[in-house]
Write the structure tokens for this entry.
Amino acid sequence: MLSRVLSVFNAGFIRQDAIPTERLESADTFSRNNSLSLLRSGWISGMEKGPMQSNIRKMYLVRMLSWTHFFAAVLVPFYTAWGGLRFAQILFLQAWFMFCVFLLEIPTGTVADFLGRKISMTIGSCVGVLGALIYASYPHYGVFLLAEAVFAVSFTLFSGADEALVYDTLKELGRTRESKKTYSRLESFKLAGIILGAASGSVIAKFLGLRAPMLLTAVPMGLCGLIAATLREPESFRRAKARPYRKILSEGVEYFFRNRVLMVLALDMVVVATFSYLILWFYQPLLASVGIDIVWFGMVHSMMCLAQIAVIANFLWLERLLGRKRRLLLLGAVVPGVLFILLGLVRSTVLVVAAIVLCAGFGLSREPLFTSYMNKYIPSDKRATVLSTTSMLRTLAICLANPVAGFLADWSVPATLVVVGCSILAFSMFSRIREEHLID
């Protein structure tokens, strides 16, 4: 079957960007490295596959610990009461962080493809510990700016590296068809870390003060680094590793922008995610507008995370119910689009809370699906760089959308929500994703 596909490709009837890279790489892999073929067929699995099996379980823990941020539940009081900042300064810190992430996404993704994904995440954890310690060291705006830049380095050292290592591990184990399920679980562990951090952070702040949650965030980040240091790099990465940094960077970025299918998938993911991300900024004023006390905001935030976990856990069931993979992606766009419009029109407490939770559940849970589909078109030696390029585009889109949405919200929050909802629905109608692009 493979020889038939390759012969058609060589004859020019099939575009290279429409064929999953693992199919194109497999014949070359056998001829250049017969030992890897033996590994996949089971001849030396006893020696090599054992450590690789544990990679996935360890990555679940790494993802959860890297998102266990004790400060998340008390961040605004931390800034205002302990740091003495005005709200405008807080928003500028967020913009500064996003700008740093935008600048660092591709260079740090290339670091993962150059030095190794394991090394990138281990360094990222150490840098995250440093960021938490800097933040909690002294209440001064300049210190906070420095800490945000350090956190941006940590964040981008993880971005792309974790997903690339997971996929190449599955590839080496011959389990790439499980990638959708694995990425879904990875995202669920991330959300579990967010819930754990938010729930614990408020208790820590109550008994130890507002500075303590930020300081203690160094603990899960340190544990994350220890686990990341025990990961094993897949054979496919070790073979392709010895290449100059600049060559990896340029080839990875060029590959992304030349691959039509990757561009189509990335565009759909980025646009819908950018609009859906706005629910994180609007849900608190929406709750306040229907008379819900601030003490319940954390509970609603946890419900939003749990809704995402529920949707992610039922991806396969939803696909079978809908009959096509593309319809599930469409559902993840249409539902938040309709709910944004509903939030702009209703003032019922029950409807507002339900719409917020479902909007987050469907709108913010699409990324694992796209990550699984996109990885089918990315070669191992470019994987982290290409994924970081996608993440950079998402960061840029959020940086552009947030101030526009803020300007519109100063005019009218309900009208802004309707505009956002209509924009999502309009984009989903013209999505260029085809069913044949979505390969398990």
